[in-house]
Amino acid sequence: MSRNSRRKIAIGTATRNRPKMLRALLDSYANMEFPEGDDVDFLIVENDNVDTASGTVDEFREAVRPHNVFYILERKIGISHARNSALEYSIHNVYDILAFADDDETVDPRWLVELLNERDRNALDIVGSPVRIAPVDISFSWWNKLLWRAFVDINLRAERRCLKRVSQGRGDSLKIATGSWMGDLAFFRRTGLRFDNERGSAGGEDWHLYDRAKSLGARTGWTPNALAYETMPASRLSLGYYYRKYRNRARVLFIKRYEENAGTAVLRLPGSLLSRLYKAVVAVLTFPVHPGGSLLACAREIGSFVGFVQGCFGVRSKHYEHIDGY
Question: What CA–CA distance (Å, rounded) separates 127 from 90?
Fold first, then answer.
């Protein structure tokens, strides 16, 4: 479409049982810079059986006038259902662009503008950007802070790898999650692509959508300039949380492989398991140098090992049935 015309941009947020985190995200939205010459609305999708967030949404609506704020109660429990509610609403109401941030994040004032700049510069169908780890609460224990520092180190190393790919002209090879995401709705109208509702509460729906989009010819990219920040409550700064996270990811990955090609998935399984065991041993050896990172790596590899085995027996992930946050 011509850039001489005004575009309709929707910013979608799926939320469930995180009232304080949602309020922090909405406050960061209220402090954003908005693109000149475009209309920006907000779409809050509460994924629950009852309305608990509309009061917070009403306060936000007053804070961001004249921007429109719409509230949807999506009663079908599952992150895919909530994201599809935002996507379907945006398509039905003739929006041009849809962006997502998660309800456990806050966004930089230039988040929206920078995502849009990257999308426009390269005519992208989907664009993503970094989600960094927010500063830890000073009241947390030394153990929480030790793991937080390890999380931050892992996160920044991953971001540097993304930057390297972008500098090499390979930004289109980076997988894009919905923690910081923007999509051109013309692509979704044309292809009919949606988040996979069969995944329910398993998670991984955003990566699955990315893979499907690429197979349908989507132009994708990544910008380092549109920053979002994930809040880490004390409950996430634990080895148990990290173990469960990667166990669930491995379940999803194995089942995805099995659905695509059962024989190949089974043949790859021994190699996947041996790789996790090797990495766990290496992580133990690095404990004297990087204790926090070593412990997280062990939890990650053992969780992945167990997840692959469970996936082989048909155990499906329920990552989003337990809401972690506040």
Answer: 17
Model confidence pLDDT, tens digit, residues 228-267 = 999 999 999 999 999 999 999 899 889 889 988 999 999 9
Range of the domain at 75: 8-236
Count of CA atoms in the C-beta half-sphere (13 A) of 287: 7
Return d(Cα 156, Cα 272) in angstroms, integer: 25
Q: What is the pTM of this model?
A: 0.90
**pLDDT digits 0-9 by tens, 256-265:** 899 889 999 9
pLDDT of residue 55: 95
Judge if 255 and 302 occupy the same domain: yes
Residue 294 amino acid letter: S
A 10 A CB-CB count for 132 gives: 16
Q: Which CATH number goes with the domain that contains 158? A: 3.90.550.10
184 neighbors 119 (Cβ within 8 angstroms)? yes
3-state SS track over the chain? CCCCCCCEEEEEEEECCCHHHHHHHHHHHHCCCCCCCCEEEEEEEEECCCCCCHHHHHHHHHHCCCCCEEEEEECCCCHHHHHHHHHHHHHHCCCCEEEEECCCEEECCCHHHHHHHHHHHHCCCEEECCEEECCCCCCCCHHHHHHHHHHHHHHHHHHHHHHHHHHCCCHHHCCCCCCEEEEEHHHHHHHCCCCCHHHCCCCCHHHHHHHHHHHCCCCEEECCCCCEEECCCHHHCCHHHHHHHHHHHHHHHHHHHHHHCHHHHHHHHHHHHHHHHHHHHHHHHCCCCCHHHHHHHHHHHHHHHHHHHHHHCCCCCCCCCCCCCC
Q: Quick check: 179 pLDDT over 70? A: yes
The set of residues, in sequence order, having a beta carbon less than 8 Å from that of 71 and lying 6+ positions away, is 44, 46, 53, 54, 57
Parallel/antiparallel/unpaired status of strands 97-101 and 220-222:
unpaired
Which residue, of 205, 236, 267, is where some domain finishes? Answer: 236
